[in-house]
C-alpha cells in the first residue's frame, strides 16, 4: 500500500492524490505538516511534502513520484505513449508549475491566509504571471482536455494551479488574470471539475483549508 504524506491544502499533494484516484491506485493518506520535517527527513531529504512511502521506503519530489506511479501502474496510462508527445505533456506540466504556480504562490499569504503582500511583490508577480500564463495558452489544446482529446496527468496539474490563479488574483488584484490571459480556461475548469474524483478532492481540500486556517499558521502552497 502507498501512503501519501502531506495535507490537502497543497496543490502538489492534491496533484498526486488526483493521479492515484484517476489511475485506480490503492493508497492511504497521512496528514503531515511542514513544521514536522525533522520527523521525516529520512523519507524526504529536504523535509518537503508531499512524499510517499512504499514498503517503508520514501520517495519525494512530485514529478519523480508521478513518473514512479506511471511506470508502476501502467494499466491506465496518464502520459502519452508516443515519446515526443510524452515529452510535450511533461513540457506543459513544467510550464504550469515553474512559470505559473511558483509565481502566483507568492500571493497565497494574502489570498488565502489573512496576511499581506507588498505592492512591489504584487507588481512583479502580475508581470511574470501574465508571461507564464501566455506560454501555457500557447501549449494548451483544451480539446476538451488541456493536452488534447484524452485525459492526462497534465489535467491533474492544470486544474489545481489554474484554479488557484483564478482565486488568488481575483482576491489580491480584484481581477481574474486567468480569464484575461487564457479565455478558454474558465470553460475547461468547469468541465474538469465535474469529474467525480475532482469533486472529491475539492471537498477534501475545503475541509483541509478550514482546518489549516484554524491553526493560524502561514503557508504559501
Walk me through the structure.
By secondary structure, the protein is of the alpha+beta class. It folds into two domains: 2-72, Glutaredoxin (3-Layer(aba) Sandwich), CATH 3.40.30; 83-215, Glutathione S-transferase Yfyf (Class Pi), Chain A, domain 2 (Up-down Bundle). It is 57% helix and 8% strand. It has nine helices and four strands, in the order βαβββαααααααα. It has helices spanning 11-23, 62-72, 83-104, 108-112, 119-139, 153-173, 177-181, 185-193, 196-215; strands spanning 2-6, 27-31, 51-54, 57-60. It has a four-stranded mixed beta sheet, covered by helices on one side. A hairpin with a 2-residue loop joins strand 3 (51-54) and strand 4 (57-60). 36% of the residues are buried. The mean pLDDT is 95.
Amino acid at each position: 500500500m502507498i501512503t501519501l504524506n502531506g495535507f490537502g491544502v497543497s496543490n502538489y499533494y492534491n496533484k498526486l492524490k488526483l493521479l492515484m484516484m484517476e489511475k485506480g491506485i490503492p493508497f492511504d493518506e497521512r496528514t503531515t505538516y511542514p513544521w514536522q520535517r525533522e520527523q521525516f527527513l529520512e523519507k524526504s531529504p529536504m523535509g518537503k511534502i508531499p512524499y510517499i512511502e512504499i514498503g517503508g521506503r520514501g520517495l519525494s519530489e512530485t514529478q519523480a513520484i508521478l513518473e514512479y506511479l506511471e511506470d508502476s501502474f501502467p494499466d491506465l496510462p496518464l502520459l502519452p505513449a508516443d515519446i515526443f508527445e510524452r515529452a510535450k505533456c511533461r513540457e506543459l506540466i513544467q510550464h504550469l508549475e515553474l512559470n505559473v504556480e511558483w509565481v502566483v504562490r507568492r500571493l497565497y499569504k494574502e489570498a488565502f491566509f489573512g496576511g499581506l503582500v507588498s505592492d512591489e511583490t504584487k507588481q512583479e508577480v502580475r508581470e511574470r504571471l501574465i508571461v507564464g500564463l501566455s506560454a501555457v495558452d500557447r501549449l494548451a489544446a483544451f480539446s476538451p482536455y488541456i493536452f488534447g482529446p484524452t485525459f492526462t496527468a497534465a489535467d491533474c496539474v492544470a486544474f489545481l494551479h489554474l484554479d488557484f490563479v483564478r482565486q488568488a488574483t481575483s482576491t489580491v488584484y480584484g481581477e481574474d488574470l486567468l480569464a484575461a490571459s487564457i479565455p478558454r480556461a474558465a470553460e475547461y475548469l468547469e468541465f474538469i471539475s465535474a469529474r467525480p474524483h475532482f469533486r472529491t478532492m475539492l471537498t477534501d481540500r475545503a475541509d483541509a483549508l478550514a482546518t489549516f486556517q484554524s491553526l493560524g499558521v502561514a503557508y504559501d502552497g
